[in-house]
Design goal:
5% strand; two-stranded antiparallel ribbon; 2 strands; rod-shaped
């Protein structure tokens, strides 16, 4: 390391400045690489978590859709059974069915009447 002296100042030579700049540049590159590696790792981790969450939501949605479809089928079947039961009741006992319907109408009317 060569140092030139002026009467009151110490001035480093060009090779010392060049070496310091090269060292600083190398340190900046290492820091940039380190930050880039950490950012890439964080990105991969976040992307993996997002993919996992999306798969979980997709599976849950499929399960809900299957449950809704199954419930809809059960409701349709119950409606058909009820319809069949009512038709049978009306065919076997028409007067009783009409009397029950009239009685239910009067009861509902009485319950909904303003007081």
């Amino acid at each position: 390391m060569s140092i030139l002296t002026n009467s009151t100042q110490i001035i480093p030579s060009n090779s010392t400045i060049g070496h310091a700049m090269e060292s600083a540049s190398s340190a900046v590159h290492r820091a940039t690489d380190s930050v880039s590696d950490a950012a890439h790792s964080a990105y991969e981790s976040a992307a993996s978590g997002a993919r996992h969450a999306a798969e979980s939501v997709n599976n849950a949605a499929r399960h809900v859709a299957a449950s809704v479809e199954s419930g809809g089928q059960q409701i349709k079947q119950a409606g058909k059974r009820l319809d069949g039961g009512l038709r049978t009741q009306l065919n076997e006992r028409p007067f009783t069915s009409v009397a029950v319907a009239i009685g239910a109408g009067f009861l509902i009317s009485w319950l909904l009447r303003p007081r």
